[in-house]
Design goal:
Chain lengths: 368, 336
């Protein structure tokens, strides 16, 4: 960081350019349009910059299943908690996850009861923790999309190179393109266009969406995270919807290429292979998870520890599942702001910093 | 043989404890009120009102760019008194030391406490030292309590904001939070951001002299400016509207926040104050802030409104609106 008087990102926050983009959007959005931002960071950015308050009433922005903590199935959370009950285990995790309630308890509560749960900033920190604690087994909770999966794959490879026997990963990763197909196939979901995630697309590239786009020709635009990035992408999406000509478009070319990041994808492929996965809200989706390859089985916590979890019904009244696929907005959930708050969350969408309910709670005072 | 580390006996009340007092503490802090080394300090007070406040400090790491746990402990309590409109006068110092703390570290912290006392114009008049076994505390925890004198006619409280008041902030946001964050294990950043820890007593008296209509003063420490705005809105039953464009943030701080997803509105400051000034006195208050060495970057960031009582709202740079909610959960643990 230097002492330059202006940040690079300032260029993407210019009020005059924003006004001109907004005029174009208002002109073109001449009928109701339902657009879904798939990525939780987009949801947050849209609220932080007050973009919803600037869009014409014809545009409805739906928040999709793009917060990794939120789409993690309750059973997986229960499995994480079950892991923390093993005396020899140190659970290492990103911070968001520790407050997510499972069926009975949360990692945070178990930590207060004596379970060894450590918040780390990266999977490599967990590898270092394993080196420093040879008598314990460090289990890293691998939650996230294609954005975090390569770093966790790299951590597994360095644990292998170090010959570490006491490090493993509980792989609960999810991939974005299969979820888009599931959303389009869902009978109740009506979406006119997708704002595709920026960070995920940096890794997987525009090409990774082609199969989905061919099967479901829907307006699709990759967006960045600054106000002008978002407005430009919304403008492109609105234009496609208005013209009735769907396309797979990249409005974040300074970061996203057609082929993505080949190095990151190679590391991911070396460690993981596609598997079926359960999503909160969407249920099981074929090929939407990432399992650790058999040749790296000793780094696979699911294989090393026998974890039995019982399927439990979701908390009564919690609408996280419907919110994650755009069928409901948080204020339509009976628990929102009442029984469910960031201080005492019932569902994951209220816990995560990228959760839709947390975004509404923090930034949105209204009632839509 | 003398140890260069804190031993359990340093807190025993016996010989080593006495030696710590005679060798280290008294030479630094000696003054007529402390000198008798009695169980407490006895002093005269003028007729009028006193302000009394206490705060405990557990910052990790204990040394950070721009300060350490010592000057933070002094400024923290001094500023709490100042935000009551008081002139800070006396401080107590409670030290909880972990067995094994290097004496050199303790000395460095005590020297920094002495310097901070002088800058703030307050006297240390009573204290206590305890030592706990290794692992029972983390290096050093400090508690300070302070007494200040509130000048006649000064009434400051969170409920004093009125619609139309200007919201003034004495300088850039989030410097302390980011300075501490850059030193954390696993998150080390090369940056020139330093903590803003500083005493604000003099600035407060200057503001009150220039703008006697100021009724709300707050130092946005933990929870940051965003949380303080909400507290004032709730206590005064008014709305707060701030302009994103006007919020002062150093570029390096903004860059690190962007990178890590932190909002500078919720990060800690240790040498900043926020006040609500009646519109006809806002310029005078702002000028008084800017004359103070710790308030050179003071700016108006928004206005108090009658609309949406109990809520803080931000006009974003691109012209949108959003709620500024109170911080829930901790963005960064142990920042002070």
């Amino acid at each position: 960081m230097n002492d330059s008087s202006k940040l690079f990102s300032e260029d993407f926050r210019d009020p005059a350019l924003a006004r001109s983009l907004l005029r174009g959007i208002a002109r073109r959005a001449d009928r109701p349009m339902r657009l879904m931002e798939v990525c939780g960071t987009h949801t947050m950015a849209i609220f932080r910059h007050g973009i919803r308050t600037l869009l014409p009433p014809t545009i409805t922005l739906l928040s999709g299943p793009g917060c990794p903590v939120c789409v993690t199935d309750a059973q997986e959370i229960d499995a994480f908690i079950a892991l923390s009950q093993h005396d020899e285990v140190i659970v290492a995790t990103f911070g968001d996850l520790i407050r997510v309630p499972g069926s009975y308890t949360s990692l945070q509560k178990e930590s207060a009861e004596g379970a060894d749960v450590r918040v780390v900033y990266s999977a490599m920190d967990a590898v270092q923790l394993a080196q420093a604690q040879p008598d314990k087994t460090v289990v890293f909770l691998g939650v996230g999309f294609e954005t975090t999966a390569p770093t966790i794959a790299a951590a597994i490879l360095s644990a292998q190179a170090l010959g570490l026997a006491n490090f493993c990963v509980y792989a609960a990763h999810k991939t974005v393109p299969p979820a888009l197909s599931a959303l389009m196939g869902h009978p109740a979901v009506a979406i006119d266009g997708f704002l595709l995630p920026g960070h995920v697309s940096v890794i997987i590239g525009l090409a990774a969406y082609r199969d989905f786009f061919q099967a479901h020709p829907t307006p699709c635009v990759v967006a960045g995270f600054e106000p002008l990035d978002l407005l430009q992408a919304i403008d492109a999406l609105v234009t496609q919807v208005a013209d009735g000509i769907p396309a797979l478009e990249n409005c974040y070319p300074r970061a996203v290429t057609d082929s993505g990041n080949p190095k990151a994808r190679a590391v991911m492929d070396q460690v993981f292979m596609p598997c079926d996965a359960r999503w909160r809200g969407l249920g099981p989706i074929a090929g939407s998870g990432l399992a650790i390859r058999p040749e790296l089985a000793r780094f696979d916590a699911a294989r090393r520890f026998k974890i039995a979890v019982v399927e439990m019904p979701p908390p009564k009244g919690c609408a996280c599942g419907e919110i994650l696929i755009g069928l409901k907005t948080p204020p339509q959930c009976p628990l929102f702001r009442k029984r469910c708050t960031p201080m005492d969350p019932v569902g994951p969408c209220m816990v995560s910093s990228e959760g839709t309910c947390a975004a509404y709670y923090r930034y949105h005072g209204g009632t839509d | 043989m003398q140890s260069d580390k804190i031993l359990l006996d340093h807190g025993s009340g016996g010989k080593l404890a006495h030696q710590l007092m005679i060798d280290l503490l008294l030479p630094l802090f000696d003054n007529p009120l402390l000198a008798p080394l009695h169980d407490g300090a006895v002093f005269d007070v003028a007729a009028g009102r006193l302000a009394f406040s206490t705060d405990s400090f557990v910052v990790d790491p204990i040394f950070f760019p721009g300060g350490d746990i010592g000057d933070l402990a002094v400024n923290g309590t001094v500023n709490d008194l100042a935000m009551c409109g008081a002139v800070p006068r006396y401080l107590s110092l409670g030290l909880i030391l972990e067995e094994g703390l290097p004496l050199a570290d303790l000395k460095r912290i005590l020297v920094s406490i002495r310097a901070a006392l002088d800058k703030a114009g307050v006297q240390l008049i009573t204290g206590d030292t305890k030592v706990v076994p290794r692992g029972a505390a983390d290096k050093i925890f400090i508690n300070t309590a302070g007494i200040g004198v509130v000048p006649a006619g000064v009434v400051i409280g969170g409920d004093g904001a009125r619609p139309g008041d200007c919201i003034l902030l004495s300088g850039t946001m989030a410097d302390h939070g980011i300075a501490v964050l850059t030193q954390r294990e696993g998150l080390r950043f090369e940056s020139d951001v330093v903590s803003d820890t500083a005493p604000l007593g003099a600035m407060v008296q200057a503001i009150l002299a220039a703008a006697p209509g100021v009724r709300v003063l707050r130092d946005p420490t933990r929870g940051g400016v965003g949380t303080v705005l909400n507290e004032i809105a709730l206590q005064s039953k008014v709305g707060m509207v701030i302009d994103e464009e006007l919020l002062p943030v150093q570029p390096a701080v903004a860059g690190i926040c962007d990178l890590l997803g932190f909002d500078p509105l919720y990060l800690a400051n240790e040498g900043k104050l926020l006040c609500c000034a009646p519109p006809d006195q806002a310029d005078a208050a702002l000028a008084a802030m800017r004359r103070d060495p710790h308030g050179r970057d003071a700016v108006r960031i928004g206005q108090v409104t009658a609309e949406h009582p109990g809520r803080a709202v931000m006009r974003t740079r691109i012209g949108g609106q959003r709620i500024v909610d109170m911080l829930s959960g901790e963005q960064l643990p142990r920042i002070c």
